[in-house]
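Lab notebook, bench 4. The sequencing result for the construct came back, and we need a structural model before the next group meeting so we can plan mutations. Quick request posted to the team channel:

Model the 3D structure of this chain.
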Amino acid sequence: MARNPLLLVPNIITIARILAIGPIVWLVMDGDIILRIVALVLYVIAAASDWIDGYLARAWNQYSDLGRMLDPIADKLLVGILIAALAWDGSLSGWDMIPACAILFREFFIPGLREFLGNKTIVLPVSKLAKWKTTIQLVALAIILAERIIPGLGLASDIGLWVAGAITIWTGWTYLRASWPHLSGIGK
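Done. Here's the predicted structure in token form:
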């Protein structure tokens, strides 16, 4: 008998991560320092759930097509919407918008590329560096969230965001380079 993918614990965790985005953003945009602390705690839990749902899916053999689809979407929603909220509340400077925009560009472009190539039955497997990219993005955004709570994190948050942006660009470039023969017609 097939299992209902909505009842699998890893998928429940992934869906909870998606549902947590709204409250996190609302708390960030409120501007109150106590609410910012609550937002940071919720964000850290949501970010950690990215690892937890994958671990449980492997440990309990609870893989599903729904989970494979939702997990990367949840990550991209969490990162992208939080970047927008942090830009709105002034946590990101003008210079910070360079790596932030690079992150957003890659997070939209590569899934679009995968979808296009998928129609041609070409698969771009997720690289180990791309998995680390997500972790580095999540950590960088946590530091930016904490910057208003813990004075003196400005340099660390800037470095974290620029490192996340650089790795994001690199992984995007490697996917584009790997797909180029199929896009240019050379690989036919």
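The first helix runs from residue 9 to 30.
Will bring this to the meeting.
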